[in-house]
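Dear Dr. H.,

I hope your travels went smoothly. While you were away I took the liberty of generating a structure for the chain from your last submission, since the lab meeting agenda had it listed for discussion. I wanted you to have the full record in hand beforehand rather than looking at slides cold. The sequence, exactly as received, is reproduced here:
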Amino acid sequence: MTPEGLSEGARDPVPGASLPGTARVVIVGGGIAGASVAHHLAEQGWDGIVLLDKGPLWETGGSTSHAPGLVFQHNASRTMTRLAQWTVELLSRFGCYDAVGGIEVATTEERWAELDRRWARSRGYGLDASLLSPAEVADRVPLIDPELILGGFGVADDGVANALRSAEALTRGPIADGALSAFGSCEVTGVRVSDGAVAGVETPRGFVRADHIVIACGIWGPLLERLVPGLHVPLVPVQHQLAYTAPLPELAGETHEIVQPILRHQDHSMYFRQVADAYAIGNYRHEPLLTEPDELGGSAIEAFTEGDFQSAYEEAGRLLPPLEGVELVRSFNGLMSFTPDGFPLLGESAAARGLWLAQAIWVTHAGGCGRVLAELMTHGDARVDLHECDPQRFDAHGTSRTYARLRGAQGYREVYDVLHPRQQQEQVRGQRTTPFYERQLALSARFFESAGWERPQWYDANEELLTGDEVVPDGRWAARYWSPVVVAEHRACRERAGIFDLTPFTKVEVSGPGALAFLQRLAANDVDKPVGTIVYTAMLSPRAGIMCDLTITRWAEDRFWVVTGGAVGRHDIAWMSKHLPRDGAVRFEDRTSSLCCIGLWGPLARELVGSVSADDISNEALPYMRAGRLDIGAVPCRALRLSYVGELGWEIYARSEFGRMLWDTLWEAGRGLGVCACGGGAYDSLRLEKGYRLWGQDIDEEHDPYEAGLGWAVRLSKDHDFIGREAAAEIKERGVSRRLCCLVTDDPSVVFVGKEPLLAGGSPVGYVTSAGYGATVGESILYGYLPVEFAEVGTTLAVHSEGADHPVTVASEPRFDAEMARLKDVAPAAQPAA
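The corresponding predicted structure, in token form, is as follows:
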């Protein structure tokens, strides 16, 4: 007998076939994730695809085998929502999906406010969503007690996927066409790597030579770390409770697998789905039960821990009265993969060229994940922003088993919690601190974590700068994890000078006889400039997406610094490393930890630095976008004359061991000038006033430079060819259909947090990418991509937030110092007479 929903012969699709000696790609893992990758690679024209599973096909024993298949598409992440939407499209084509709708209910005011935010985001993300009254929920889910809920949030085409049948269906066509060979009971026992690239896999049935390997084996993924030096699969298997009831009289005679909408009761960390005349109940409301991968057998199912289910069982009967006291005919703890941040591991590993990960992928996103990974493997890029899923996002700080276990367990606890985008993890903190950390503690810094670094968001010591007229965001949600001190620090930087800790910047030194050609091949701007020049540039994907956004400083004919954001550093390093020449002509050194950095900016910055340095820092000696060496007190430094906050000043770099003296020297010299230690909150609001884009929010690989307003930094005419050049030229020629626009609210106290929908006549036309309060201009500023017909300055739109639509207007940008007089320290052009 085959597993539920599978066709005869599914376990052995090609009886008697022998394992091929060569393949273009070997996919390790035959669950729905591996099947989706195989299907989409075949769609991209690949052949020579080999899929291996340690268990029988398609009864993998992994999470696919027991997944209840609920597909709730909405996610706070637009990328994850998009992946879910693609999954629905794909599985619907194969008849493996029931679009019965999904409903999330609220039993508290806090949850009801969260459902309003979900509804708002869903509109901006293109989901068919609605808010429902208790009566409307009960009309769709007759078993529910409407008296217990405040309402619901529904998505019309949420539903249930049959995971096992999907895995078979996705591979049936490629097998029939000869593009795919699939083998069960064939465990991978070794991975060969040659000259930094994968060479093939070893199995008990022989060696398969391959140019690519995809690891898609779910909870067993970390076991492959021992097969490939340098491979990290930071996930932990966590047991999750699922129980099936006996038939319910209220559903007597029902033969369809599922008719009623799937249901989430997140105030009690539970979900429900109909199973013909019975119900399935899922429960997250228990302490995480972690299992190490090497303790797993061949199954992803553990014994049911009945005591953990008691609270859920009672709540199920309260919310859905027909479930009160019902017999449970099947119950178990099923293992699921949790990464430290809850996102998948999707992309190429740094351990070897051609080694790809498709890990920690739930059924909800499996179709979309397979699609984008196949695009990456075929074209070198994807048509969606994947930085949240990048396997390289965990620097050395996030690769230990302790980190994976503690963060993964917390992710399980919080899976249904109401989480604010600025809310911080509390587990494994203080791992990476800068040389200024003790000085920041003395100023009562409020820290946030980025790429493992502890970074000040603001300093409570600056409360003494408050004047009482600071605009406070109008709304509890926007004001959460925020302080008016941010406004005070913002003003201090604009009016005097601010010290910012930029040590977490990713700093890479590129040198050698091939350094210039290497960077010219990657950079869309022209970096062949005189020594001492700083160049702002994007690095484009083959289809002209903005893969990286950074600066390149030339220190010598054959030596450069590449500086990029700390949060995206591993992503950018992976992109650059992928294109390094193999002849040794380029040396590539990550100097992030060896160099500290202070951003010192403001109208008094030159006076401050001049008081502790004998070097010439005048406009003539060190103009805007130029770099040089200088001593600050006794500390030898390098100074880059540029600014992300739009003020005169420098990024000042020194070796980390000099960091404390560098801070103390500038701090003592600046006290008489009113220098202020400023945090990340002010850093972000200052850059918004200047219209500077933030990679991962405003720009990413999904957006091209022309729609992002960065076409001026693309040098199509430069002598050296660069990745994405042809695609960029085509985009410039045909024009764009959307533009990144600056908008301001009518009421400056209405401040957004990001991802709210942009509405024209009540219909969504985009969503907010960045938002904040510009304290200098006294405006609530936001950015978002708009169709060109709505992108003209003066166009009025609305943004839905905290239960209401708020008017906004497309505005010119930047909102502050459009002539860049402050940055360049020059007198502004004379204004025409009125």
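Two observations you may find useful: Residues 1-11, 830-834 have pLDDT under 50 and may be disordered. The longest strand covers residues 763-774.

With kind regards,
E. W.
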